[in-house]
Design goal:
Number of strands: 14
Radius of gyration: 21 Å
Strand content: 15-25%
Largest sheet: 4 strands, parallel
CATH superfamily of the largest domain: FAD/NAD(P)-binding domain
Shape: elongated
CATH class of the largest domain: Alpha Beta
Helix content: 25-40%
Strand order of the largest sheet: 8-2-1-12
Order of helices and strands: EHEEHHEHEEEHEEEEEEE
CATH topology of the largest domain: FAD/NAD(P)-binding domain
Number of helices: 5
Length: 230
């Protein structure tokens, strides 16, 4: 069965990429539908970090072009948070446990200063064991589940349509669903991450996709403000 409606754009994937894309396209006046598999994906359990300086700290070899890209993305998330009414947590605290880490963070501070970002030296919070502490006011974090909920609400409030189903095949202007239905659209955007690899029979380039593992740890401790430590 082919569904009668023909949105100009169909996005496969209702995670952060699909929803952000949908909201942006709706604000530009397009007719957009999103196909949601109904299964929580990686974005639902991500760390929620919007932290370009942390990325630099983890790999100092990052090029300035990548850093500028990360900073622009962080700014875009702040604008999106205001539009969709979800909270961003700030700022971030960097702890140095050894003199080597202190030197590394001082190097990060010099690079941040050159980028116009502020990292300030602060006292090590009571109860924490560290040689030094630095606060980065530009770093942010969000609750991914709350953000996804707000993005879904904004998408629908702007007139977007959420459809439920799992994509099985893809062809020009149409997506075949696992339940036998067919969705048609002038433009199809694949935004469901590694899930797109299942369409590799129709689009050979998708076979090259491979999953990337993330890490998260839950710690039970009565003095922690949150049970999730990232």
């Amino acid at each position: 069965m082919t569904l009668p409606r023909h949105p100009s754009i169909l996005i496969v994937g209702a995670g952060p990429v699909g929803l952000c894309t949908g909201v942006a396209l709706l604000r530009e006046g397009h007719s957009v539908s999103i196909l949601d598999s109904g299964v929580p994906a990686a974005g639902w359990a991500s760390g929620g970090m919007l932290a370009p300086l942390y990325e630099i700290a983890s790999d100092p070899a990052y090029s300035d072009a990548y850093v500028q890209f990360a900073l622009k993305n962080a700014e875009a998330w702040q604008e999106l948070a205001r539009t969709c009414a979800f909270d961003l947590q700030a700022p971030s605290l960097f702890l140095a446990r050894t003199q080597e880490e202190v030197d590394a963070l001082l190097g990060l501070k010099r690079r941040a200063d050159a980028l116009g970002l502020e990292i300030e030296s602060v006292s090590v919070p009571a109860g924490l064991s560290a040689e030094a502490a630095f606060r980065a006011k530009s770093e942010r974090a969000l609750d991914p589940r709350a953000a996804l909920k707000s993005l879904r609400h904004q998408f629908q409030a702007l007139g977007g349509e959420l459809l439920v189903g799992k994509a099985e095949t893809i062809a020009p202007y149409r997506i075949g669903l696992l339940d036998g239905r067919t969705l048609e659209a002038e433009t199809i955007i694949l935004a469901h991450g590694y899930g797109a690899a299942s369409l590799g029979q129709s689009v050979p380039a998708l076979r090259a996709l491979s999953p990337v593992k993330g890490q998260m740890m839950r710690v039970a401790h009565k003095e922690l403000a949150s049970p999730v430590v990232r």
